[in-house]
Amino acid sequence: MDKKSYKMSFSSNINLLNKEKTKENFAQANLQNLIPLMPSNIDFENNPDLIGIVLNSAVGNLANKNFHCISNKDLVSIAKNFVYKLVDIEHNRKNCVGFICNYGFSKFEGGEVITEEAAADSTDPVNLSLAAIIWESTLEDSYEDILENCDDPQSQYYNAISASWEIMFSDYDIAVGPTFNLADCKIFSGEDKAVYEQYLPQNGGKGSFNGEYVFMLAKVTAEDWVLPMGIGLVENPAAFVKGLVIVNPEPPETEDGPEEEDDKMKDMSPNSPSDMPTCNDSEAKISNNNNNSVKIDNKTNSITSERMKFTNIKDLTDTSIKEALASDVHELFEQAAREANQKYTKAKTLSETLKAANEKLA
Q1: I need a labelling partner for 199 at 20 to 30 A (CA). Which of 84, 229, 330, 335 fits?
Q2: Alpha-carbon gap, residue 359 to 362, rounded angstroms
Q3: What's CA 279's distance to the chain center, in Å?
């Protein structure tokens, strides 16, 4: 990490200069398109303490409101390094609430997901799209409520939280042009950029010169690097991105509705109400059409079984194991384990005896 002597950083402590010239009339992306970015092997149903979100975190080829920019080509080259980096709140890196688990790209206008190749070749602005896991236990209740309602158009918290990337970079060029779009700008490097340094907001300038914008362009070359550090969940992102979507682990409702579906599931149960013993019986017997049977004593709530007996592990067949009770099989394996342990103990003792005898002979 010696080469990464962090010289510069991008974050979203917004210093919106020339506000009258900086318009936010960008198209609202369709964030629902990003849901497939969430890895399918993440089990939200059995891990209710995890919250999955998808969002846009930065825009390539378009300067942000802090007068920072990165090209689409360089954005694609560093995107994979966002994976496993932290998610914090308002760029407070001590308030880590999750991590990034996947990345992708989408069109700035409309939000259609595109390939890395298409993103790198595009001269239009391109979104860096991310999937992230949030640890519910790290959130205050009030913040969790805002987060979970952020993608509800009917909620007062709609689009209240967005993402802002965090990167470190070693060097930069300067872009000068009539718009924030990199395609409309001239790029100045090395000694040629010196005349424009004073106009950068980071150096006390206003971000403009002779009616044109002046902004910093991070770059990736053989000598220059850009290191993703994560994202912050923020109220006012520097990039022209907005909102997030919660990845819903619940299965979609059927046309019959959830109640009708539950009724169907009950009817499909192997122990439907007509098959169950009635409460008036002091003792009922449930037959499962095999050699086992279970008796339920309704007075004592005790359960006994007429068990299938196994004497050897070879007795277990595809058919018999389906008919056996768990306890039957458990006892059989316990017996096999005991026998194996006895054999191992004898073998170990014999081995130690032989070893001692050989040492004595030597």
Answers
A1: 229
A2: 5
A3: 49
Give the pLDDT confidence of 98-124 residue by residue, as tens digits: 999 999 999 999 999 999 999 999 999
Helices (H), the chain: 72-79, 116-121, 141-148, 257-268, 318-323, 326-361
Q: Hey, what are 315's tokens? A: 């007795």
Predicted confidence (pLDDT) per residue in 314-324, tens digit: 665 656 555 55
Phi, psi of 120 (to 5 degrees): -65, -35
Structure-token pair, residue 299: 């007075």
Question: What mean pLDDT, rounded, does the chain reach?
Answer: 78
Structure tokens at 223: 């000598």
- Chain CA centroid to CA 72, Å: 24
Closest CA to 144 of 161, 128, 126: 161
Backbone angles phi, psi at 141, to 5 degrees: -55, -40
The DSSP line for 156-180 is TTTT--EEEEEEEES-EEEEEESSS
pTM over 0.70: no
Q: Parallel, antiparallel, or unpaired: how do β-strands 68-70 and 92-107 relate?
A: unpaired
